Amino acid sequence: MAGLWVLGEVTADGTLARISTEVATLARTLAEAAGEDVAGVVVAADPTAAAAELATYLPRVLAVSESAAGERPWSMVAAERIASLREPDTKEFMFVGAGPDGRDVAGALSATLGWGVLGNALGASWDGGPVVEMSVFGGKLTTTSRFTGPTGIVTVRPNVVTAAPAKKAGSVEVVEAAGGDLGQPAVRVAERVVEAGTAAPIEEARVIVAGGRGVGGPDGFRLVEEIAAALGGAVGATRAAVDAGWIPYGQQIGQTGKIVKPQLYLALGISGAIQHKVGMQTAETIVAVNRDPDAPIADFADLVVIGDLFEVGPALLAELRARSG
């Protein structure tokens, strides 16, 4: 096996998850700096499409066909098949996205292989092994950690790395699932429920219009939604708005929600507490509308409009509609 591995996640339509392209870019950069080998592995009922896409980021990808991956929880199936691929007494590090599936498989791999896990990485460098940057205390402090042994698993937060294909596409090797029958309990997936929402996940939106406590309630979010629609963007929210039941959890941005990196982030009625900041601070341009000139968001936004949201918002919406008309 290689020194660095990237576990590629597969979406419901069989393509490679966006977060895996970001993880692959980070791992490839580390491998180049360290002079180490790097490869990817995709475990799925049909890994063909995802493996081919991952190979545009990495020099070598193993495509492991496993029919049970479509019927049973993917994390346990993937962990068991990957464990059967590794060679004992070798220096290896596995990189995977820190999304729901990535966290699950990291835990399963850790239990199966006895490897340590460094989670929610903001970045990494190399010094005899991965040196991982992580945000703690609600984003108030960044730490660096490393593994004490020659193996480990790193989960990488979404939107902290800009995905960039390699100069030359790599190869895909089709591998038969090794290790015989799966040893874990045959848990069956009884039903899959897809939450209704925007055409693209909020993590992939180029424009996000987000509302906070200052929106005032569900009626206030109608204005947020109208502005988002006029800009062709997605709707986001703070934890306070989600906890109040004004908007679904799937649109929460921040420490306990999604990490986003849009070109434009329009914050409406958001104070900019550190817990929210860690989820959107990497946006290219941040524009805030707030009545309080001393709100924390004023310290890091590119443009702050001091005023009543329900005066500024309709005026902005009218101007956007006039331009589109």
Backbone shape? elongated
Strand content: 25-35%
Number of strands: 14
> What is the H/E order?
EHEHEHEHEEEEEEHEHEHEEH
CATH architecture of the largest domain: 3-Layer(aba) Sandwich
Q: If helices are DSSP runs of H or I spanning 4 or more residues, what is the number of helices?
A: 8
Broad CATH class of the largest domain? Alpha Beta
Side by side, the strands of the main sheet go 7-6-5-8-4-1-2-3-9
Tell me the domain tally.
Answer: 2
User: Whole-Å distance between the termini?
Assistant: 58 Å
CATH superfamily of the largest domain: HUPs
Averaged pLDDT, please? 88
| Overall SS class | alpha/beta
Helix content: 25-40%
* CATH fold naming of the largest domain: Rossmann fold
Low-confidence stretches: none
Q: Largest sheet at a glance?
A: 9 strands, mixed
Q: What's the Cα radius of gyration?
A: 22 Å
How would you portray this structure in words?
α3 (74-85) crosses α4. With 325 residues, the protein is an alpha/beta fold. The protein has two domains: 4-176, Rossmann fold, CATH 3.40.50.620; 202-324, Rossmann fold. β1 (4-8), α1 and β2 (38-44) form a beta-alpha-beta unit. It is built from eight helices and 14 strands. The longest helix has 17 residues, at 18-34. The strands form two sheets. The chain has a nine-stranded mixed beta sheet, sandwiched between helices.
